[in-house]
């Protein structure tokens, strides 16, 4: 197998590691590309390509995350990870960990960790790397890495509980939700929402968002019921699909351009949170991006026209 073939075989794993550390599709792709350049330029041929390449992409991702955190301190409004439609890496033996770790909720919990804690946690808990490999990757002793994992686990457990493990139940609930959403049925929507549900948007100041968010089943249900009919009248489309391994949707304008993405957090048979990403800088990998502000203005005009 050539060096290029080895790299391509491992590319899905490298991207998946980088995405979970950085929370960014673009930055993960950049880290993978830089890893290839270093692999191509390396005169040595390591015993394990997987160990070498995973170490390089992890170190690059840690550096990216450290600089990104400075930028996030001045980010306008809530910050969410870039939406991921498909995780390129799969491992039947770790499917539960992989699915759980890519959800918006889990990635936001990972934000509580230091870059080093996050990297060690991802390598150990998500991908099952041995402590010897992890220690060599991050330049710490095995004992120090074990302590980092213990600390990271504690921070993660302090967050919200795991979401529904049964994918079929989640998908069935999401189907009922989007049906009620399409029909503007306030009562059905309210029944599907947790009492303390939150609807929050990440726009980065570059796309429409809902002020500080909306909270509570009744308020969110009424907002949702009023939202879709005028959006549909101007040709807007809601495309239900998996986003970050969770039920979600892509909103498109009449030309099929992406306006935003939604993800639904499901627990105990109810939707706990609806997170939307409307920052156009975070949507380019999903597809051609539309003008969210223009769609909002047109939707509002269509809504006023019904009164």
Give structural notes.
This is RNA polymerase sigma-70 factor, ECF subfamily. One of its GO terms (biological process) is DNA-templated transcription initiation. Pfam families: Sigma70_r2, Sigma70_r4_2. Keywords: Sigma factor, Transcription, Transcription regulation. Residues 7-69 form the RNA polymerase sigma-70 region domain. With 307 residues, the chain is of the alpha+beta class. The chain folds into 2 domains: 3-157, Butyryl-CoA Dehydrogenase, subunit A, domain 3; 167-304, Nuclear Transport Factor 2, Chain: A, CATH 3.10.450.50. The chain contains 12 helices and 6 strands. The chain has a 6-stranded mixed β-sheet with strand order 2-1-6-5-4-3. Helix 2 (25-41) crosses helix 3 (49-72). It is elongated.
What is the CATH class designation of the largest domain?
Mainly Alpha
Q: What number is the mean pLDDT? A: 92
Please trace the helix and strand order, writing H or E for each element.
HHHHHHHHHHEEHEEEEH
Instruction: Please identify, by name, the CATH architecture of the largest domain.
Output: Up-down Bundle
The N- to C-terminal Cα distance equals: 67 Å
Q: What number of domains?
A: 2
> Approximately what portion of the residues adopt beta-strand conformation?
5-15%
């Amino acid at each position: 197998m050539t060096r290029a073939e080895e790299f391509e075989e491992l590319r899905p794993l490298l991207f998946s590691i980088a995405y979970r550390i950085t929370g960014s599709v673009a930055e993960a792709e950049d880290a993978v590309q830089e890893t290839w350049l270093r692999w191509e330029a390396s005169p040595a041929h390591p015993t394990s390509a997987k160990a070498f390449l995973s170490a390089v992409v992890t170190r690059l991702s840690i550096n990216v995350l450290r600089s990104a955190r400075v930028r996030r301190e001045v980010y306008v409004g809530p910050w969410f990870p870039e939406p991921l439609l498909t995780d390129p890496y799969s491992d039947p033996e770790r499917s539960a960990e992989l699915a759980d770790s890519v959800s918006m909720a889990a990635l936001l919990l990972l934000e509580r960790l230091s870059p080093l804690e996050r990297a060690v946690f991802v390598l150990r808990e998500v991908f099952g790397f041995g402590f010897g490999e992890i220690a060599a990757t991050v330049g710490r002793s095995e004992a120090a890495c074990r302590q980092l994992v213990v600390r990271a686990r504690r921070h993660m457990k302090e967050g919200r509980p795991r979401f529904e493990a049964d994918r079929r139940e989640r998908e069935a609930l999401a189907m009922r939700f989007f049906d009620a959403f399409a029909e503007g049925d306030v009562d059905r929507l309210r029944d599907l929402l947790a009492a303390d549900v939150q609807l929050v948007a990440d726009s980065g100041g570059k796309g429409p968002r809902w002020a500080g968010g909306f909270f509570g089943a009744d308020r969110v249900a009424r907002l949702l019921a009023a939202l879709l009919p005028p959006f549909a009248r101007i040709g807007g489309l809601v495309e239900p699909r998996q986003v970050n391994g969770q039920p979600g949707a892509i909103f498109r304008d009449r030309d099929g351009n992406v306006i935003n993405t939604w993800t639904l957090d499901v627990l105990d048979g109810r939707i706990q949170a609806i997170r939307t990403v409307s920052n156009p800088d975070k949507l380019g990998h999903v597809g051609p991006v539309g003008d969210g502000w223009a769609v909002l203005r047109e939707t509002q005009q269509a809504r006023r026209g019904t009164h």
